[in-house]
Design a protein that fits this description.
Two copies of one chain form a homodimer. By secondary structure, chain A is α/β, with parallel strands linked by helices. Chain A folds into two domains: 173 residues, NAD(P)-binding Rossmann-like Domain (Rossmann fold), CATH 3.40.50; 112 residues, 6-phosphogluconate dehydrogenase C-terminal fold (Orthogonal Bundle). Chain A is 53% helix and 12% strand. Chain A contains twelve helices and eight strands. Chain A has a five-stranded parallel β-sheet. Chain A has a three-stranded mixed β-sheet with strand order 6-7-8, covered by helices on one side. In chain A, α4 links the parallel β4 and β5. Chain A is elongated and about 65 Å long. The interface between A and B is large, with 88 and 88 residues.
Chain lengths: 293, 293
């Protein structure tokens, strides 16, 4: 058995699904949940996702050999601070945050340093639903998990976190904190900004009722991510503001050039841009995502 | 029977599906196809979509009481010109172009004026596939068709075009040419520009292989429309450059403000923007598009 006692701080879709997977794999003894909502925690016990719970992170991590943080990015620092002084010496700590530099800073501030057991991570998985009710075993199967081990991280802790995600069927890769934050800014955070901006631009136009009425099916797919949790996205934007700010700058530059090309009716140049984008999309996205992972 | 002889200029997904629907509804006598690709036209005859064909628009429209143009926007003017002098006196002409002002201009240039039988239109329907093989009966069922009758359009011609689309199960609405072009710029053309720009921005980044590898599922949905036909989109952008240029300007302004808000880490303002977008998306898009049409 990989984990004797697992503390899940934040028992929602991400934390709950990890608990279910490890339970199903027989790789965990006891699971202690922690969160603010009593109903959600009681439901988690009923569903068998956790064995017991506490509202207090310090209490929840006592005696745990693995701690998984799945709280909003904006709550990371206070969560680390609440755990301070209650962690076992040999504990391994990892998390599911979508921006890593801010989690590292939160750990440093909250625990007063970076313990060797801390290995930041990010499972690239999720659905639009939240709460423990939305969690399910298999969420991480064949999905990528990015670990961003720090100079302070011990090899043993890294190995344990890798093993935990492998037990969930995930494909684990490693990269630096800075590179993770750049890659995610481009592939996830930027597209969300585009969708939020698009819907907001349209909502602010006159006669927006009519405008939305004529939106075709592709528009619905395109803007689905604008229905994501606003609080979570506020936290992600603030946490990853540097990398995201940079890629948004680049994107705005590209859009401005495209608008100018359209305004002067330069068909040759438009065909070049659209053909290049289509080729990249067909080659990379379909090729890489459709391939057996 | 609504139509004695229908000429379909451009026998692809849009024109082919209209032919199939009208045939199935028993509302058409003979269907004459016109296009450049011989294989596609012969296949259309094999499939029973058309009865016979010609490469020459003038020949194809001879004796027709209804003409439907489904050629690329960039080919509209030459198609109208090729039809000139071959049209019956009582013919009704409509089309499926995604930008209407340019089709009206093409008709005026190609035919030397706007005949009373001309009623521009735009079925809001389609798939990512093209060619007569991709056409099917039912494409227009419960979909919206926007007609943009002109001051020159006769009431009789408008009634016949409405009846034709009703026979396909479509919901027909009317608006002005200018308003159509604004609404479509916002709901269809702009989202396509965002997707093309996003993919192109990422493709131009260093290490873009890796970047696409970590793109999550939402990214694939989001960028699907970047796989659309580049020639078609070049034509749409050139045809609708005024309305599209204006809405792109507005969007770039909104994105620039958002980037600035992110850079200064203004969480309250971000939450306000994302909440408004989520509310608009949930209210309009799901509400209006999920409702039985």
């Amino acid at each position: 058995m990989l984990i004797r006692r697992l503390a899940i701080i934040g028992v929602g879709l991400i934390g709950g699904s990890l608990a279910r997977d490890l339970r199903q794999a027989g790789e965990v003894g006891e699971i202690v949940g922690c969160g603010r909502g009593r109903d959600n925690l009681e439901r988690a016990v009923e569903l068998g996702v956790i064995d017991r719970w506490s509202h207090d992170p310090g209490e929840a991590v006592a005696g745990a050999d693995m701690v998984f943080l799945a709280v909003p990015l904006g709550a990371m620092e206070q969560t680390f601070a609440a755990m301070d002084g209650h962690l076992s010496d040999d504990v391994v700590i990892t998390d599911g945050g979508s921006a890593k530099a801010s989690v590292v800073a939160a750990c440093e501030a909250g625990l007063g340093g970076l313990p060797p057991g801390f290995v930041p991570g990010h499972p690239i998985a999720g659905t639009e639903n939240s709460g423990v009710e939305a969690s399910f075993a298999g969420l991480y199967r064949n999905r990528r998990v990015i670990l961003t081990p720090l100079p302070s991280s011990s090899a043993a802790a890294l190995a344990r976190v890798r093993a935990m995600w492998h037990a969930c069927g995930a494909e684990v890769t490693e990269m630096s904190v800075a590179h993770h934050d750049e890659v995610l800014a481009a592939t996830s955070h930027l597209p969300h900004m585009l969708a939020f901006s698009l819907v907001d631009t349209l909502a602010r136009m006159k006669a927006n009722d009519e405008i939305f009425r004529y939106a075709a099916g592709g528009f619905r797919d395109f803007t689905r991510i604008a229905s994501s949790n606003p609080v979570m996205w506020r936290d992600i934007c603030v946490a990853n503001r540097e990398a995201l700010g940079e890629v948004m700058e680049r994107y705005i530059q590209e859009m401005s050039e495209l608008a100018e090309t359209i305004r002067r009716g330069d068909g040759d140049r438009l065909l070049e841009i659209f053909s290049r984008a289509k080729a990249a999309r067909d080659r990379y996205v379909d090729g890489l995502l459709d391939s057996p992972e």
